[in-house]
Design brief:
Layout lengths: L5 H20 L17 H6 L2 H16 L1 H11 L10 H15 L7 H15 L4 H16 L2
């Protein structure tokens, strides 16, 4: 997965957030869900995506789902004023894939890049001020959880 570019990684992260959002919204956050066809995407849409994008997105989705309980517990620890279930669904899933990438992924992506990507995703997919919340939570996790 290292031999694809920054744009493909961003598209994959965006696809992962959109998919997790759809799964979360429909109460289908289940790691055993078949990800051949991603929720919210038609076969035509899936076939138009570059292979690298779908492979990396599925990696992020599956990894996030496998560690979901731990990730949500971490979010709860660092989002003091907002319980996980009260965080906007898009923001919650941006945090989830970002925490998976920082703490559980075997990919060699520096935490500051992951946080920067999360902020960009938030700015394009969420509210005007959500990026500040996401940046703060992820930066605290980076400072306290990464050794």
């Amino acid at each position: 997965m290292k031999d694809f570019n920054k744009v493909e990684r961003h598209e994959a992260r965006e696809l992962a957030v959109e998919t997790l959002y759809a799964m979360d919204f429909n109460n289908q956050l289940d790691e055993s869900l078949d990800l051949t066809l991603l929720p919210g995407k038609s076969e035509e849409e899936m076939s138009s995506l570059p292979d690298n994008v779908t492979i990396y997105a599925k990696f992020l989705i599956q990894g996030t789902l496998e560690h979901l309980a731990d990730i949500d517990e971490i979010i709860g620890r660092y989002s003091i004023n907002r319980p996980v279930e009260k965080i906007n669904c898009v923001d919650r899933n941006i945090l989830r894939i970002s925490i998976f990438s920082m703490l559980y992924s075997t990919q060699d992506v520096h935490p500051t890049i992951i946080i920067d990507e999360a902020v960009k995703l938030s700015q394009s997919l969420s509210t005007d001020v959500a990026y500040k919340f996401i940046n703060g939570v992820l930066d605290n996790i980076r400072k306290k959880e990464i050794h």
